[in-house]
Amino acid sequence: MVHFPVFCTRFVELQFPQKSKVLRTSAFVVPFLFDSFPLFFRLLSCCWGSCSPSEALASHSYHLLFAFLTCFLFASHLPERLAPGRFDYIGHSHQLFHICAVVGTHFQMEAVLTDMASRKDWLTSHSVLPSFLGTMGVLALGILLNLGIIGVFSACLPRMPRQSTSASSGAHLHQE
């Protein structure tokens, strides 16, 4: 629910074009922070010594470093702001933004896979096997909710009058 209002910033940008950069950045930062709070808690608790060190902590740290670098490059437009015209084709902040996002995603996946491998015994002993309702039921619920969202927003679209086929066929007859 947090993602939806922030994701709809494109509509607000039309009303407040001077705030478009802040709105676009917040559309990515707010969901990232919301999803990363457990990771922040884990990293901070491990820094304070209340958790056992893990091989995945380095990958999680690199992931966060590249995520913050991605946000910084998106918001600051460096390096082309420092030397206009020199980074038009190679080294533009948008290119660097995407490179950092891909590298950050790589470290995120490495950390998740390492965590899953190192905690496999604990996960299998403390988790419940998925049921048919827990998998297909959730899938069906997701599809129904998406169809509901499409229906609600489609109902809000302005209706455009359709052209009559008899009027277009009549125009064709007059041309002959």
UniProtKB/TrEMBL annotation:
Record field: transmembrane: 22-44, 56-75, 133-157
Localization: Membrane
Primary subcellular site in the record, as a coarse category: membrane
Keywords, comma-separated and alphabetical: Membrane, Receptor, Transmembrane, Transmembrane helix
Membrane topology: Multi-pass membrane protein
UniProt keyword annotation of Transmembrane helix present: yes
PANTHER family: ADIPOR/PROGESTIN RECEPTOR-RELATED (PTHR20855), MEMBRANE PROGESTIN RECEPTOR DELTA (PTHR20855:SF39)
Similarity section: Belongs to the ADIPOR family.
Record-given protein name: Membrane progestin receptor delta
